Amino acid sequence: MADPRSVVTTIAVVAALACGGWAVYATKHKAAGNGGQGFTQQSQAQGAGGAGRRPDGAGQSGQARQGGGQGGGQGGGQGGGQGRQGGGQGQGQGPVGVVTSAARMANIDVGIEAIGTAVSNEAVSITAKVSNIVTAIHFKDGETVKAGDVLVEMDHAQVTAELASAQADYANSVSLFNRSKELAAMQSLSKAQFEQLETNMKSNEAKVAAIRARLSDTYIRAPFGGRVGLRRISLGALINPGTLITTLDDLSTLKVDFAVPDVLMAELGRAQTVVARTAAYPSRKFSGKVVSIDSRVDANSRSVTVRALLPNQDGALKPGMFLTVSMDREQRKALVIPEEALVPEQARQFVYVIIPGDKVSKREVRIGRRQPGEVEVADGLANGDRVVVEGTLKLREGSSITERIQAAPAARPVAAPAKEAAP
After folding, report:
1. Considering only CA atoms, which of 383, 336, 387 is closest in space to residue 361?
2. Residues 55 and 101 reside in one and the same domain
3. pLDDT tens for each residue of 187-235
4. 344 in a domain, yes or no?
5. Positive or negative CA dihedral for 391, 394, 398, 403?
6. How far apart are CA 411 and CA 197, in angstroms?
7. Are residues 63 and 103 in the same domain?
8. Please, what sign has the CA dihedral across residues 74, 78, 82, 84?
9. pLDDT tens for residues 115-168?
10. Residue 25 lies in a domain
11. What is the 3-state secondary structure (H, E, C) of the chain?
């Protein structure tokens, strides 16, 4: 006979499985029924303009119909916002509002402007050739000196004594050589002895010259006329070769070196007039001449260095000053457009040109010189072509536009060529 407990356990397990299966079956059929009802309601909402199950669905669907973009919206819950968005999509992108300006003929500057640095016509750092003690200083800070003036004197007592001894030896050798000439003429002196006396005389002469050179090194002189800088040594100081004593600059004329792009080399020439300005003297012009043009173009900057000389008799300009240089500012007629119209793409330049039908066409242009607010168009446009100056970021090839014409700038007066002004 079976165990009653086993029977009860089996019955309980079977009942539990039956209940679980029924729950799963009921859940699936209920979800399927709700889904079908929802699909029916969604279809009704799309067909009838969003008449949803809830009372507020009608109002929201009404907002979708007001948007009108997607045929009544996508449902009662999203009708308003998506309907308005869909309305814009249903009608397509509208015209883009832009500001345009016409390409026109105007005067542009042909002259060259560059920046440079003032450099002394001649400049040197005064140093010593030998180690010695300073015994005298013959200049003051900022003093003007002449070529050959003694600036610093060093101890030369020992060299002077050596020079005196060498001069005595040389005088003795000269006397012996002169007497040997008479003996050689009477053949009382061999030729070898005569040549030896002559060699000794020349050797002593060379020794005198060498000691005189050493004595000269104890006097430091100005190699050219100019203005000395600050004194860097003191009396009694031991100085070595390379020790900076002071600086010396020829400020009567200054050199200014400035870089010019290689595309403008055809406009460069010797003896051209340059006008330099500096922030230190805002109302003053310094005029000079181009004296040389470098023989090479810098491979990195694609520019050539030009050198000009500026008279500086009053010493107003100092070496190292920053200068703005301009050359022969003339003007010529050229086709110009506002700089804002350019759309750069890598190394190329484009503009959007207005074409019939209130549309735009993207066109490549080749530009030339620039001046404040304007740029020269060398190729790609004709006089009177209207280009977009504001709103280019929203445009594509063939975009529709609504145009607002920018006021034309005032004509620039023709500037007279620069005249040479006294510094």
Report:
1. 387
2. no
3. 778 888 888 988 999 999 999 999 999 999 999 999 999 999 999 999 9
4. yes
5. negative
6. 93
7. no
8. positive
9. 898 999 999 999 999 899 999 999 999 899 999 999 999 999 999 999 999 999
10. yes
11. CCCHHHHHHHHHHHHHHHHHHHHHHHHHHHHHHHHHHHHHHHHHHHHCCCCCCCHHHHHHHHHHHHHCCCCCCCCCCCHHHHHHHHHHHHHCCCCEEEEEEECEEEEEECCEEEEEEEEEEEEEEECECCCEEEEEECCCCCCEECCCCEEEEECCHHHHHHHHHHHHHHHHHHHHHHHHHHHHHCCCCCHHHHHHHHHHHHHHHHHHHHHHHHHHHCEEECCCCEEECCCCCCCCCEECECCCCEEEEEEEEEEEEEEEEHHHHHHCCCCCEEEEEECCEEEEEEEEEEEEEEEEEECCCCEEEEEEEEECCCCCCCCCCEEEEEECCCEEEEEEEEHHHCEEECCEEEEEEEECCCEEEEEEEEEEEEECCEEEEEECCCCCCEEEEECHHHCCCCCEEEEEECCCCCCCCCCCCCCCCCC
Residue-number span of the structural domain to which 45 is assigned: 18-89
Q: Are 55 and 85 in a shared domain?
A: yes
Structure tokens at 250: 């020829």
For residues 25 and 80, membership in a common domain is answered with: yes
Sign of the C-alpha dihedral, residues 111, 117, 118, 123? negative
Q: Does 68 share its domain with 102?
A: no
Mean pLDDT, to the nearest integer, of 361-373? Answer: 88
Residue 110, pLDDT > 50, answer yes
Angle between helix 191-217 and 157-185 (nearest 10) = 160
Selection from 398, 71, 110, 397 nearest residue 263 by Cα: 110
Q: What is the CATH number of the domain that holds 355?
A: 2.40.420.20
Neighbours of 177 (CB within 10 A): 17
> Is residue 154 in a domain?
no
How many structural domains are present in the chain? 2
Query: What's the pLDDT at 84?
Result: 42
One domain for residues 62 and 83: yes
Give dist(CA 416, CA 288) in Å, integer.
Answer: 18
116: nearest Cα among 284, 278, 334: 278
CB 273 within 8 A of CB 422: no
Q: Residues 361, 392: one domain?
A: yes
Residue 374 lies in a domain: yes
Phi/psi for 36 (5° steps) reads: -65, -40
Provide the residue count of the chain.
423
Q: For residues 336 and 401, state if they share a domain.
A: yes
